[in-house]
Amino acid sequence: MRWAVGALLGISLNVAAAEPPLRFVVADSWAMPMVQLDRGRPTQGILHDMMLSLATRVGVPAEFHVLPRARVQNAMERGEVDVRCYAAQSWLPNQSGDYIWSIPLWSQRDLLISREAQPPHVDPASLPRQSVGTVLGYTYPTLQPLFDADHLQRDDARNQEQVLEKLLAGRYRYAVSNHWTLDWFNQRLLPGQQLHAVTVLQEQHVGCYVRNDPQVPVQRILRTMLRMKMSGEIDEIIRLYTGSAEDNP
Known about the structure:
By secondary structure, the chain is of the alpha/beta class. It folds into 2 domains: about 1-105 and about 205-240, Periplasmic binding protein-like II (D-Maltodextrin-Binding Protein, domain 2, 3-Layer(aba) Sandwich), CATH 3.40.190.10; about 110-205, D-Maltodextrin-Binding Protein, domain 2 (3-Layer(aba) Sandwich).
């Protein structure tokens, strides 16, 4: 699949070289299998491959802008980038600007995880007062009331992989991770070292949104996303990195 995406890109770039690139924003807090960042540039991962294929099928070059998560929405509003993927409207309740959302493309599951095997379900509200590993700038609606009450405290790291590394090192007993990153992280560990999901905190559908600008081929982008989802291409990209297809949103 990755070879096919690269070959398709090579063919189309000659045709589309004169057209403006499609500018994607990439949060520097993403980790594999979503995106691999090498020297500040995305090189592989589920979202990298999907966005690269999207631009190729639209017929324009892809351009990636890696930014801190706190600057992502501002870059969209200022017209510095055109497309943001792996987002939900509930994450942006005060979104300003003119955007058009895609259909749901993925399912996002936030998990409370631990180094130790636990009973099938752990209620965060029943935990004693302690720090929980989180990603800087991420919101966790299920845990926010406990953070507000100072029952639990955030221990922020720059990206999701760093959160898991700190949990593995014993910096705290619990952390939050999405299911993709947890599975990817566990692949490199022996069975006795692997981290365990102890409860599902939240599950929601996520997609992409496009800046509604006459210079951006908005409808062509949205139609292409729909075809990629309906044809199974997006699920095939997920399977390439995780070994299993995504549950359909």
